[in-house]
Amino acid sequence: MYAIVDIETTGGHASANGITEVAICIHDGKKVIRRFETLVNPQRDIPVYISALTGITNEMVQQAPLFEDVAHEIFHLLKGQIFVAHNVNFDYSFLRYHLSAAGYDINLNKLCTVRLGRKIMPGLMSYSLGKLCSRLGIQNNARHRAMGDAEATAQLFSILLSKDNDNHISKALKQNSKEQVLPANLPKADIEALPANPGVYYFHNQQGKVIYVGKAKNLRKRVCSHFTGNNPNLQRQEFLKNIYRVSYQVCGTELIAFVLEAVEIKRLWPKYNRSLKRFENTFGIYMYEDQRGYLRLAVDKHRKHMPAIYACNSLLEGHNLLHNLIETFGLCPKLCFIQKNDQPCIGSNVGQCACEGNEQPDVYNSKVLAALEQLKQALPTFAIRDEGRTDDEHSCILIEEGRFYGMGYISHYYNADNLQALKNYLTPYPGNDYIRNMVTGYADRFPQRKVMFA
User: Fold this and answer.
1) Helices in 272-412 by DSSP H: which ranges?
2) What three-state secondary structure class fits 118?
3) Per-residue pLDDT tens for 114-140?
4) C-alpha–C-alpha distance, residues 230 and 449, integer Å
């Protein structure tokens, strides 16, 4: 038996919206044998644009029962049935959420007539309920009302049952089928094409634009995890509705996938990614020449169009590093913006400091450059050589002078001991502290995979 359902609501996600109308048609596989419909008082105002669409007004539902008053009957109508709807996850998420709030839990097999329509009648321009009804000659005199759409969906379902020569419906109901949980517009073939390798995956909308980027140790398992459960919040419901295609890049290791995800989020700026979008090096050490010709070092907030000599995560880290350079190389605290008062410079004897003009710019600047050279030498240059995508290659990530340079794949037989030669095989990528810290942390955990360069 099939419970063919349609609901009208006050908005697009269950956790913050109410149901205004419910219709259920019990279908025995041949015809509808029972019908149920009711208006529901959502206990909140119905937005004007939804009233205009459905024709359901606040006045119409004022005397209607609350959902909790009809939950018992709805629960027993649905219990044990196969839940069918056009874009099934929307209706199911609402009813499951509000039934749970009323003390009733459902866990039903589901069928989506959007997905079934794409499989049983492929090649149509649109699989919206209105367009399908027009094409198939299904009359719906109460469009965007629960019973009108439920009756139309029931007629559509009868047609799908009669045309299902390849048993798509029974296949969708099998225990190991993904059809029940996949977004309505995502082809199952995209999921079946996913390998179990590490990699980066991309969700695309109807226009092909990337709307989400993720990384995975196992691509198929991770992508499918997005579709489990019935989270009723707005972001998830809108997210699932807009997924039309999945593409992917296989990576040699999970680390490569982590790095590539960070790079791709910054490059593509996908709508539904939140983390990693705003990550930037917070502070950096910068150098410039003042009007008197002295090279000056300063810790400052990240500047988008000016590369730092050294990136640091905090103002304190930058100041501590400058203090060490001042002490080691006799730099001027005032010219490094460490001492900002009008008192004599604490870095030298009174009257003997560059800030007072008693040390020539070329002499002082040679000390600054020596300090920077030591800083540069202290920054490591190394590669991580690890598993590749195939048995005859290795993956390779390069950190050059403490900065992420790029990554790629090299032959299993290539001896990656020449820095300049190695760079010819790698793709340069923009980096940040998140990537650098991730790679250096990995190198610390797996030193046997680290290739050092002088």
Assistant:
1) 315-329, 361-378
2) helix
3) 999 999 999 898 899 999 999 999 998
4) 42
Mean per-residue pLDDT of the chain: 88
Distance CA 107, CA 246 (A): 27
- Identify the CA nearest to 139 among candidates 124, 128, 151, 127: 151
Query: 229: pLDDT confidence band, cut at 50, 70 and 90?
Result: low
Q: Are 226 and 186 in contact (CB under 8 A)?
A: no
CB-CB contact of 312 with 318 (8 Å): yes
Q: What angle is formed at CA 335 by the lines to CA 332 and CA 339, rounded to 5 degrees? A: 80
Which tokens in the block code for residue 87? 């874009």
Tell me the C-alpha distance between 25 and 39, whole Å.
15
Q: Is 219 helix (H, G, I), strand (E, B) or coil?
A: helix
Query: Can you tell me the distance from the alpha carbon of 431 to that of 440, in angstroms, rounded to the nearest whole number?
Result: 13
Give the strand order in the sheet containing 2-9: 32-39, 19-27, 2-9, 82-85, 110-112
- Return the structure tokens found at 26: 């019990």
To the nearest 10 degrees (0 to 180), the angle between helices 67-78 and 88-101 is 120
- Provide the pLDDT for residue 172: 87
Q: Of the candidates 372, 427, 433, 374, which has an alpha carbon nearest to the alpha carbon of residue 398? A: 427
pTM exceeds 0.85, yes or no? no
Contact between 85 and 5 (Cβ < 8 Å)? yes
Measured CA to CA, the distance from residue 416 to residue 419 in angstroms comes to 7
In order, the DSSP letters of 335-369 are TTTS--SSSPPTTSSTT-SGGGT-S-HHHHHHHHH
